Each structure stands twice: as structure tokens, then as C-alpha cells.
Amino acid sequence: MTEVETFRLMGWTWDVSAAKKYAASRHPGGHLRPRHWAGLLALIDIDQVHAELVDLGEPLIAVPASPRGGPLVIDGWHRIARALREGVAELPVILLSKEEEYACRIHGGSRCYGWA
Fold it and tell me: CA torsion angle for 33, 34, 38, 40 (degrees, to 10)?
């Protein structure tokens, strides 16, 4: 059985395995600045050993997280942590659509436990 990779932030959870399938055939549509995300790292469980092994060239995956479409990174926090330590100014990012975000969201917002 294949393990599903997830990302949880407070009361929200996303299926990162599904998000990676959406992102697999795309090229990054832009870049994010790791320093703008440093404040959220206190909420993320970062394995420092793993962070040293990540590929900074692999695009982050973000989803629209507000009515205005502002992004939230759901895959790539170890890359952000490493980039901050190494002084990397920008990381590539793939932004999923609102529909893809909803399809990947397991819990949070209008979703509830047991949503199928």
C-alpha cells in the first residue's frame, strides 16, 4: 500500500501526493522568496537532517489560500528552511488552481472529518 503524503497546518490538511500529481507535468510559474515565509516555519515540523538533503531546484507547490488567491505552500517547507539557512533568495513554485486545491484538501474550510 502506498503511503499518502499530507501537509497539515492548524485545522487544514492537504493530500500532497495528489498535489504532486497535478504539478508533475508543469513548469514553475514563478518564484517565492523564502524570507517572506520564515515566520510560518515556527508552525512547521522541520527535520533538519532531511532539510540538508532536499533539492532546492525542485519546485515548491502552493495553493490559493484566500479569496484573493494568495498562495500557501503545501509542499516544500524543508526546501524553504534550507534556502533560508543558505541565503537563497528565490525558489521555484508551481501554483495549483482553486479547483485543484479543493480536490487536494482533506480537511478545513467547508470540509469536515470523513469527507470522501
Answer: 90
